[in-house]
Amino acid sequence: MSASETAAAIEALNAASLTPDDIRAVLSAATRWYAAVVEASGQEFAPIDGTISATEAITLACALLRAQDLTPFDLALWFSRGASPSGVQR
To answer: What is the count of structural domains for the chain?
Structure first.
């Protein structure tokens, strides 16, 4: 399945039929997949191609930080490092 087909299938889902647990499972799987790809490839890549807004990206980033009990200060420390948490150079 191509990336556009995958995106279309996800968009076709009826949001009202998804529970918070469904969404949590999808986000968790996608997050683990992204981290594994970055780790294996040695390169970070932009997982977002302009199809979401800055507000949507920050909303998700904040939720991920809160889920790990991290603060913006913690994020700033990791973000300012010469390498990402997985050791991948930016």
So the answer is: 1
Q: How long, in residues, is the chain?
A: 90
Q: Note whether residue 8 is domain-resident.
A: no
Range of the domain at 27: 18-80
Mean pLDDT of 17-23: 84
| 11 within some domain | no
Q: Distance between CA 41 and CA 43 in Å, rounded?
A: 5
| Mean pLDDT of the chain, nearest integer | 80
Q: What is the mean pLDDT of residues 55-77?
A: 90
Question: How far, in Å, CA of 10 to CA of 76, rounded?
Answer: 32
The answer to whether the CB of 71 falls within 8 A of the CB of 65 is yes
Strand partners, 21: none
Q: What is the pLDDT of residue 32?
A: 92
Q: Is residue 76 part of a domain?
A: yes
